[in-house]
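Case study B.
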Amino acid sequence: MVTLFQLFWSFFKIGTFTIGGGYAMIPLMEKEIVDRHRWLDKEEFLDILSVSQAMPGIFAANMATYVGKRLRGWQGAVVSVIGNVLVPIILILLLAIFFQTFRENRLVESIFMGIRPVVVALIAAPVFSMAKTAKVSKTNFWIPLLAAALIWVLGISPIIVIFLAALGGFIYGRCRKGAEQ
Amino acid sequence: MIFWQLFYTFCKIGIFNFGGGYAMIALIQNEVVFHHGWMTAQEFTDMVAVSQLTPGPVGINVATYAGYTAVVNAGFAPWLGVVGAFVASFAVVLLPFLVLLAVSEYLHRQKANPMIISILSFLRLAIVGVIAAAALQLVTPESFGTLSQNPFQVVCSCVLFLCAFLVSYRYKTSPILLIVVSGLLGFLLYF
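Model:
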């Protein structure tokens, strides 16, 4: 039987030692949960992974929730999520306090003048790799274009755009189902 | 009441985030910078850079940082900023957490459901556009410099942007490396 502390400790290590976001955690999670402790087999792990990706929210927190729930119910889910985010939250908070204090500093400002355009590039680059994953084609390329235009040109909230896309998917699914019958 | 607004806003961001860390950056930017005006676009860009450098999920990092900065920028004491940080990061995981607890076993059996597949494929397509818009919205004088005031900075910024874009797209170079190198270049070019 997995103890709550073991779960907490595993997700604590996973959260503390991965830099670069949720997806960078997958190899470490697999090593810890599948290979080292054998709490889940590889197939179960991949199933949990695909559901966590499809669900809204933060991928890493979803993984922690689902793995924790599977092994120790809701208490397991709570300790896994807390373990996963505890150190990151404290570290980023310290940095936020630091930067709030030193924002006017000339040295800090010069460093950020170099970083800012690179951050924009870091957000722009995954657009093209995600377009491949999303299977953008000649027939559906207007969907991402329309989404971008609604937000960028008309200033509509991305939350509304996401809601409309889900609705569009639902209507499309209904129509296809109707056509099949 | 800023804490309630933070809680509500980050609950919304959490439950509407399909598509990972960059999609979440796009949602947070829209709410925090444009809708509520809790921070400037420049502060937001700086925050994203810092969030990439520390461990943990980027979404959690950005929520924590934004919660702190929003409260402090509104004129409250730093310890209340710490409360704001915890409120934002708690809110951003809350609803997805509850939903997963309630329906994960059910969803498990629904993976091949054509309706779910149809909705997810539409969501994935729209998110490509959502992230593209977030990048476009950050191409501002605050990030790239103003042509009339500092043309040198604008030229350097455009070169840095293109290099970082190509390297990141072609070679999947780690964001940390790119941020550290560009920070060093910023120091050499502008200090």
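Chain A has two domains: 4-102, 135-181. The remaining cases will be described in the next quarterly update.
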